[in-house]
């Protein structure tokens, strides 16, 4: 049994037109933006046209399938929101591959008592500091976080959702009970170079890196760029620059070969060429496969920033907007996926995921498995993100046969 890659390709290209920016050729569908919600409506119409029921829950997750969810279901999916200037496959592949698998099962008249559904989770890319849709499904939300969460520009989650006709507190009612799920399967691009460089077709993912995200403020004193002596300044930018130089040391002393620390968003105030920066606001995202290592790295970042602030006469403040612990995938489901890869005679590697995925939250309530395909040159979160269609076809066939194998289990 094989999926229809041309149909999947057409759907991926059609979805990529929503939020597409002609100037930089990137996709712009940040969580709860107009483009994000347009993509969710598009998906519901596409699923309805294929003969499936569909609904959106209080978190904005879109589900599609057939039949009552009164028995433990096999759920497939990923997300369709994007980072700014993102690519066309990140998340979207897993959602539309789920739809393709369901259509292939129907065309081959596969009848099962187990419900098979797909999901496009909401706000996976962490605009507000978490993976809100998957957290909602797995029951990992609380009212305090929902009402206080905001993005790096100060927009509150509750306001962004309200602008799209959603009540943020309704996300608390989106949780699935563990007995409602038999398994969760996600197909995703690797977003790294390993599979591509080693010329392998499939990544069988064993676990997912933990992630913490901080929003940091270094506050000094804005001053005239021409009259303020260099040794008398409280220059917030110099504090940021010093921290950037500390990252390699922190990883060498406190991290592992799997540790990542990234300063991804920076704002300088007042932001004028002839004025010394009085404040630097920036994000720090740290990752590792071991939560104890994450804690050590986070503590080392805090100590380094405190010392730098004293050196430059700055005030240091930070807000931890999220802390996602590392999560192993289901050993049983990982082995099942590996068996299908071998049966299909694809080359593969068992590997960890350095990026976070919905799977890590779904693993809290069911057996969850994650499948990777190569990203050309390891590129993702960028307009030139690309995966070859033959790899997309291979990965979706692995997803199809993993679902079939899981359905065959008692």
What is the helix fraction of residues, given as a range? 25-40%
Overall geometry comes to globular
- Would you identify the CATH H-level superfamily of the largest domain? Zn peptidases
SSE order: HHEEEHEHHHEHEEEHEEEHEEHEHEH
Q: Specify the biggest β-sheet.
A: 9 strands, mixed
Briefly note the CATH topology name of the largest domain. Answer: Aminopeptidase
CATH secondary-structure class of the largest domain: Alpha Beta
Strand percentage lies at 15-25%
**Radius of gyration, CA atoms, in whole angstroms:** 22 Å
Just name the CATH architecture of the largest domain. Answer: 3-Layer(aba) Sandwich
Please work out how many helical segments DSSP would assign.
Answer: 12
Backbone structural class: alpha/beta
Q: How many E-type strands?
A: 15
> What ranges have pLDDT less than 50 throughout 5 or more consecutive residues?
none
Average predicted confidence as pLDDT: 96
- How many structural domains? 2
- The end-to-end span amounts to 21 Å
């Amino acid at each position: 049994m094989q999926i229809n890659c041309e149909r999947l390709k057409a759907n991926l290209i059609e979805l990529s037109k929503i939020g597409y920016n002609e100037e930089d050729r990137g996709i712009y569908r940040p969580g709860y933006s107009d483009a994000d919600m347009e993509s969710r409506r598009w998906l519901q119409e596409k699923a309805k046209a294929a003969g499936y029921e569909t609904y959106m829950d209080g978190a904005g997750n879109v589900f599609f399938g057939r039949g009552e969810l009164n028995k433990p279901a096999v759920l497939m999916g990923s997300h369709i929101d994007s980072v700014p200037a993102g690519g066309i496959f990140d998340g979207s592949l897993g959602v539309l591959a789920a739809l393709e698998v369901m259509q292939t099962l129907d065309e081959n008249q596969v009848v099962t008592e187990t419900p098979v559904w797909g999901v496009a989770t909401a706000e996976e890319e962490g605009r507000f500091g978490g993976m809100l849709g998957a957290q909602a499904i797995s029951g990992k939300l609380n009212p305090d976080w929902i009402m206080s969460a905001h993005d790096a520009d100060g927009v509150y989650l509750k306001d962004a959702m309200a602008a799209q006709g959603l009540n943020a507190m309704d996300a608390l009612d989106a949780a699935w009970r563990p007995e409602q799920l038999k398994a969760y399967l996600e197909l995703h691009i690797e977003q790294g170079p390993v599979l591509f460089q080693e010329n392998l077709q499939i990544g069988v993912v064993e676990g997912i890196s933990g992630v913490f995200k901080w929003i940091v403020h270094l506050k000094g004193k804005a001053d005239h760029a021409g009259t303020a002596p260099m040794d008398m300044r409280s220059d917030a930018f110099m504090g940021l620059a010093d921290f950037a130089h500390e990252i390699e040391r922190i990883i060498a002393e406190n991290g592992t070969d799997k540790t990542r620390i990234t300063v991804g968003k920076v704002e300088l105030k007042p932001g004028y060429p002839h004025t010394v920066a009085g404040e630097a606001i920036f994000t720090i995202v740290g990752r590792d496969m071991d939560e104890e290592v994450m804690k050590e790295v986070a503590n080392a970042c805090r100590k380094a920033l405190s010392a730098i602030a004293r050196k430059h006469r700055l005030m240091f403040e930070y807000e931890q907007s999220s802390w996602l612990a590392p999560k192993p995938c289901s050993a049983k489901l990982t082995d099942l996926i590996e068996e299908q890869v071998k049966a299909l005679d694809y080359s593969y590697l068992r590997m960890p995921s350095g990026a976070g995925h919905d799977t890590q939250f779904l693993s809290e309530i069911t057996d969850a498995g994650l499948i990777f395909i190569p990203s050309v040159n390891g590129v993702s979160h960028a307009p030139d993100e690309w995966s070859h269609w033959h790899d997309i076809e291979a990965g979706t066939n692995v997803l199809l046969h993993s679902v079939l194998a899981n359905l065959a289990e008692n």
